[in-house]
Amino acid sequence: MAELLSGNEAIARGAYQAGVTVATGYPGTPSTEILEALVQHRDEVYCEWSPNEKVALEVAVGASLAGARCLVTMKHVGLNVASDPLLNLSSIGVEGGLVVCVADDPGRHSSQNEQDTRWYARLAKIPIFEPANSQEAIDFVAVAMEISERYRTPVILRTTTRVSHSRSLVELSPRIPSARPIDFVKNPSRHCPLPMWGGVMRENLENRLRDLGAEGSTLSVNRIEWADRKLGIVTESIAYEYVKEVWPEASVLKLGMPFPFPDRLIREFAAGVEQVLVVEELEPIIEERVRVLGIPCLGKEVIPVIGELSPTVLAASRAKLEGKETQRETTALNVELPGRPPVFCPGCPHRGIFHALTKHDVVVTGDIGCYSLAVFKPLDRTDVILCMGGGVSMAHGFDKAGLKKPVVGVVGDSTFFHSGITGLLDISYNRGCSTIIVVDNRTTAMTGHQDHPGTGRTLMGETTIEADIAAIARACGFQRVRVVNPYDLAATQAVVDEELGTDEPSLIVSRAPCPLHERKPVGAQRKVAADTCKGCRICLKLGCPGLEYEGGKPHINELLCAGCGMCEQVCRFDAIHAEADHE
Amino acid sequence: MNSPETTSVVLVGVGGQGILLASEITARTAMAAGLDVKTNEVHGMAQRGGSVIAQIRYGRKVHSPLVAEGTARVLCSLERIEALRYRQYLAPDGLAVVSDQAIVPVTVSMGMATYPAQAEDELQRVFPRLVYVPAVSRALELGNVKVANVILLGRLAAALDLPLEAWHESIRACVKPRFQELNLTAFELGRGL
Question: What is the per-residue pLDDT for A582?
């Protein structure tokens, strides 16, 4: 009985079928749904949201060394955070199979960059698997797990946005639990990469790489599809599916495990075709290997290195290759279409705290989350975004460089637990004076409202402790710790004004739950009294989608208004009030 | 680029309009008809007032979940101007089914852009085959503005070659029992437009 599953649902299903018992990760688009799907099997699989990806992988290493089969999930930049344990795990090896599922984002649909995770496989000297569709996503988890245990190596399973969030038909199979007992056998020369044992580990690593490369040429996930011999296309991941549409006649070498490079198979394929073309998304990793093998080929001359591929992009590549013009042209419009950029939702508490900051001439170092949207007009407030936790540390850097203008660092609650605490410690320990704001909406919002150490609930659905941000700040040495309700604009403004005026480091916790997550209004809906309204439009500076204006007077869309009351507070003419019959 | 048997459908609109439900129903219908199906839906910006696009492809064997520009048999838009934003997907002889519902973006409320006043004229000019549906008023006639998406789905279905009973089955499977009659009525209304 076939089912339509997304790539992420399929990876979760694959992990379940392959006997995974421990699954960890940190939310990150496009990987988040994997653990959300897998936790449905909570009776057989322990699933957790770890505070960050490094912890997630370290937890999985412990579980693996005890003999459990593990899955770790993250987005591509999350692997940067987990790279220290991953690279060292490559040396000490695994016991129970350990698959790290990393979701890349070619085209940067929701990421700061489009880094190519395949580089990490090469750096760590570990195998990488790339499913092209949902059935392969299920199947490759099993193959990866078997390889992981047989070679005692961590394995990367790489997906991309279009594999993770596309749905295709799959056949399900039953779960096959691991026969390995949970136990630990003392073996320090295997598990401790100290200099005197490192030499042997290093040799083993190279041998493993060589053996895996040889096996790669016989694995079923790497296969040749012979057809017309004029053109032979080497491809992998979702690009394979586009190639089959754009070059249906060509011979294809499909690499499901592109690294370690299956040199013998690549040579065999090249020998059977007249011209080799490498079609890979992002970096020319396979292309460069083909050239190193002495095989002439085409690649990035016609296949873009920037952005994601698609049937449309490859059709243009094919035309370029054949010296033809692409025939199609889109009809030009006579009207200009207004954009629909992402904005803070109606009733978002972040609007209140960023509004308070607009009164000050400060540099704002921001971070990753819904509050990243403070970059855009009309708030136009955040100046720099770097990486998770960077909002805190960068503020300290601006200060120590001697910038006269005050700097405010902003991080969310989930980001704070992820990697904001170390930056906070730095400010206090190294005698800084930054003002840090934690925008605490009680959830990991942008990725779809996941729990974290401050929410009091686990991914498994259990009640648990709520880590206390203000207490942590005090424990780090912050004397000035304030908590504000961002919906009370005057009170919030007073605290922001005061803390920006001191020479000591301050932490302001701006706390109110995300109304989208709460699924109920913040308060009574507001309405603009058109007769009283002077049309000054100061309320529109809040950038709330509930406030609509097309000339004349602003009015509030009752389908959108969340009743937060901020517009009422900024109005100077008392023209906005709660609906009488809602009070 | 499509094998002759592969059909491509593109559904667009604004987050919250029910595009994902329409995509789900269409995909299930193709599955029930015994066809291979692949879909792609963009996540994340849907709840924050952004543009949403869902792509559905069905046929004997489907490879790409993404529709190539200029190959969609139908472009169905739940919002008045979103069809214009995604016009490049429609085949030259394809059908555009567009709802008259206008959702004003924040950029307009903030005075940074304008919502085109002559959108219907532009739709007529850009799409040689166009069905422009007063979906909101028709939905209100049926008693609930939320079925506007299913009215459009009905008209979309009339342009495709999937069995009617499969459509009805999918609708029943995808909506709560107490809404089934309403949705089936909305679907039939759309088919007849």
Answer: 40
pTM of the model: 0.96
Beta bridge partners of A468: none
Q: What is the pLDDT of residues B44-74, one digit of tens each?
A: 555 667 889 999 999 999 999 999 999 999 9
pLDDT in tens, A329-345: 889 999 999 998 888 99
Angle of helix A134-151 relative to helix A7-17, nearest 10 degrees, comes to 40
Q: How far apart are CA A556 and CA A561, in angstroms?
A: 7
- The two tokens of residue A369 are 């989350």
Location of structure tokens 């304030």: A482
Residue B4: predicted pLDDT: 63
Q: How confident is the model at residue A542 (pLDDT cuts 50, 70, 90)?
A: very high
Structure tokens at A442: 């009680």
CB contact burial A168-177 (16+ within 10 A = b; e otherwise): bbbeeeeeee
Tell me whether B16 touches chain A (CB under 8 Å).
no
State whether B64 and A446 contact (CB < 8 Å): no
Question: Which among B84, B85, B112 has CB closest to A377?
Answer: B112
Asked if B107 and A339 come within 8 Å (Cβ–Cβ), the reply is yes
Distance of CA A518 to the CA centre of its chain: 23
Q: Return the structure tokens found at A214.
A: 């040889």
Judging contacts by C-beta atoms under 8 Å, the chain B residues touching residue A550 are 104, 108-109, 115
d(CA A410, CA A385): 10
